[in-house]
Amino acid sequence: MNRETRFVGHIPVMVNDIDETRDFYERVLGLRNSGTAPVGEGAINVMSRTAICFMSCGTMHHDFACFQEHDRDWKVVRVTEDDFHHLSFTLQDDLDLDWFKQHLASLDVEFSEGAAMPDPTGTFGVGNSVHFRDPNGHFVEVHSVDVASAAKESADAS
Amino acid sequence: MPPKPSRAEAFGAKLIKLRWFRKRLVSRADIPADVRTRYARPTEKNEGQKAFVRSTKNACLYVTDLDRSQEFFEKTVGLKHLATGELVDHPYKEGRKVRVRALGFGQTPDLLLAQQFDSDGKVVPVQRHGLHHVAFWIESSTHINDFTKELKRKGYQPSYGPVKHYGGRGGDGGWGGNRAVYLHDPDGHFIEYHNEMDAFGTRYD
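^ Those are the sequences you sent over. The predicted structure of the assembly is below.
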């Protein structure tokens, strides 16, 4: 991968259950599993007794990952709320927000219109964003393509 | 300034890049069989189908001091202040208020910082175990080793790396092929700066 701009690449989060979280992101965002790393294999897994499931939007090896950490007694370390509030994704160019809302409704995923946290720039809000909670209580925000194009242009210009 | 890794931690981070050392750690760790094998195989779900989202856009981190965090992200990766909101009711936590600051590489928010206040007006401390890390892509023409030198020159000591996440020589046994360096931000969030990631579909077994 060669890209000459700076941007947010992947956002891996802590989860209570890898299988449940992976299934949610596969169904809701259509992400694909690009590899799983059992406890004890890579350096990061060894240090923190963590199993990792890498997930991709289809281009990069991973855009998202689920980390399930274990304590000294091999119990899962539960996710906490006051670490981060949300992560966000951009819809594919050929999909619109109305389609995505129908998709969420068809999966019985409760969602709200607008940004998960008030955006002081006014870029993301009602009309171009929706947000919902994943099985761990993390908020996921999804932006539609018109905003994404603006975002990409500004990133390329910088 | 981020917390500086101790000498022992820095030495440990070097040792852990060695496969034989990791094997020793693993054999001693006495991992229960179900934990060890549970995630060993990738799933094939959504094969041949395009994902509904094309990429990540941003993350919103809780912080305890907006200015201190802004300085950290400005100096380490070049994010610029875009706007700071008023103190408003937290959209999801009763009794709490929140102030949000947007930082960006261009005109749209790439990182949101949120400072929370409880009902007594005290800043809510940041917890761990929500996020694992946020990774910033650094333009491909900058080698991460050079990027790391620049961080050190500015007074930021890496918490981990520079390293390449793969199983081959000089790699740390990780996945993705990304060359990366990690820092802890002032609130202890783990932040990655990387490039050179492998394409989706690359297998490491």
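The first strand of chain A starts at residue 7 and ends at 8. The mean pLDDT of chain A is 89.

Shout if you want it in another format.
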